[in-house]
Amino acid sequence: MDDTTDDTMGNTIDDDRIRPATPADAPAVRSVTDAAYHHYVERIGVRPAPMDADHAADIAAGRVFVTGDPVEGVLVLVPRADHLLLESIAVHPRSHGRGLGRRLLAFTEQYARKRGLPEVRLYTHALMWENRQLYPRYGYEVTERPQDDPYDRIHYRKRL
User: Fold this and answer.
1) What is the separation of C-alpha 140 from the centre of its chain, rounded to a whole number of angstroms?
2) Rounded to an integer, what distance in angstroms lies between the CA atom of residue 126 and that of residue 149?
3) CA separation for the pair 30, 6 (Å, rounded)
4) Using CA atoms, how far apart are residues 131 and 108, in angstroms rounded to an integer?
């Protein structure tokens, strides 16, 4: 299957085009984020922070990027003085297995490089073991593991 045709739902996915989200994308950003994170609620005992984010404010601040028509992938990127924080990455479950997450990570690194930022940082909950296996495969290393109740986060970075 090629990445521009869809899944069994008949949706077309334009994975290669990652664009800044607009206010009109806010419902889709929430929907994709909720779909991507909801299965963690029972596992970690709390709603993952991205589910409760103010998506409209993040979009207005220029921090949110989306891909797909309809939206299938979401990034929330926060430039800092010395790094880019990948605050959230979400892929709708119906788009899993197509390399969309990999492309979103590549976009994140390109975004940081274009801004002269030497590294990307992110964090994940310790009980999100899928992420703990994924990020090191893409060159991310653990930097710290603070325990901020109710979150047991593991912080990662990738030097560019």
Assistant:
1) 14
2) 12
3) 21
4) 16
**Count of beta carbons in the 10 Å neighbourhood of residue 32:** 25
What's the pLDDT score for residue 102? 94
Name the residue among 100, 32, 121 with its Cα closest to residue 70.
Answer: 32
| Percentage with pLDDT > 90 across the chain | 79
99: left (phi over 0), alpha (psi -120 to 50) or beta: left
Q: Locate the DSSP E strands across 21-128.
A: 64-67, 73-79, 84-91, 119-125
Tell me the per-residue pLDDT of 25-59, one tens digit each, with 9 for 90 and over: 999 999 999 999 999 999 998 899 999 999 999 99
Average pLDDT of the chain, as a whole number? 89
CB atoms within 10 A of CB 10: 7
Which two structure tokens, joined as six digits, stand for 150? 């109710």
